[in-house]
Backbone:
């Protein structure tokens, strides 16, 4: 509606205002974690056993007391997760415009449809993780991603990349949509890590894994993928299959404490 010059500025202005409103709402209304408050009370009163206190650098706690394997597994899982999503997010629009020959207006429609696929994926796989174990719901989500990327690569190798304006009938459009249908695995990892880490380092552990993955999977990986693909955006996108395969493989051996009772002191 606002065009190339004002469109992105207007969008960011709206996002900024909404973000500030949400931040204020959270600050005012959201309750603090009762588990964290209880732990902090015990810590301040000096009644905590020495082994259950945080170290001066809480990052050290992530690699002791049986947490090291899980910490490393979650770092790899988050890296693989971002490799999948940023394969589509970074290279998808350029692929649609330059390779699949989709007009700009239709690219916006395809990306908008992708948001709804992602929402459905988040809701579906998070619900599944409450029925079966976190790791197996995550495994299934990445299996969907591997199928989508396999279909994408098959279509690429058979030169069936055209989508055009009538994208609903295009196999390539549906292959990319299947990949986006795997994004719901990201909805599982947060609660999966929360059940794994003890209260004293829960935020430290989950955010260390998250931002290690984001730095490697969203920052470094797209550059590496483009180099490995010889500058081809189309094949760089297809390399996201590596993330799906790594994620589902590591999820098999990752620790899982689905449904455990979370205590303040543990």
Residues:
């Amino acid at each position: 509606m606002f065009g190339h010059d004002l469109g992105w500025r207007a969008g960011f202005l709206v996002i900024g205002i909404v973000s500030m409103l949400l931040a204020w709402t959270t600050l005012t209304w959201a309750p603090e974690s009762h588990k964290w408050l209880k732990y902090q009370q015990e810590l301040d009163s000096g009644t905590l056993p020495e082994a259950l206190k945080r170290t001066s650098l809480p990052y050290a706690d992530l690699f002791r007391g049986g947490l090291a394997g899980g910490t490393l597994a979650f770092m790899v899982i988050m890296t693989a997760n971002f490799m999948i999503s940023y394969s589509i997010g970074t290279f998808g629009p350029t692929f649609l415009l330059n390779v699949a020959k989709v007009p700009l207006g239709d690219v916006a429609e395809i990306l908008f449809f992708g948001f709804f696929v992602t929402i459905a994926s988040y809701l579906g796989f998070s619900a599944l993780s409450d029925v079966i174990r976190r790791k197996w719901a995550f495994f299934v989500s990445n299996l969907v991603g591997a199928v989508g990327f396999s279909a994408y690569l098959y279509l690429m190798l058979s030169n069936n990349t055209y989508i055009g304006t009538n994208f609903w009938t295009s196999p390539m459009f549906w292959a990319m949509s299947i990949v986006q249908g795997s994004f719901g695995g990201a909805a599982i990892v947060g609660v999966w890590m929360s059940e794994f880490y003890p209260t004293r380092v829960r935020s430290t552990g989950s955010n260390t894994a998250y931002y290690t993955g984001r730095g490697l999977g969203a920052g470094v990986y797209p550059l590496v993928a483009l180099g490995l693909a010889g500058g081809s955006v189309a094949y760089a996108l297809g390399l996201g299959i590596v993330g799906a395969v790594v994620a589902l493989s590591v999820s098999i051996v990752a620790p899982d404490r689905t449904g455990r009772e979370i205590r303040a002191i543990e």
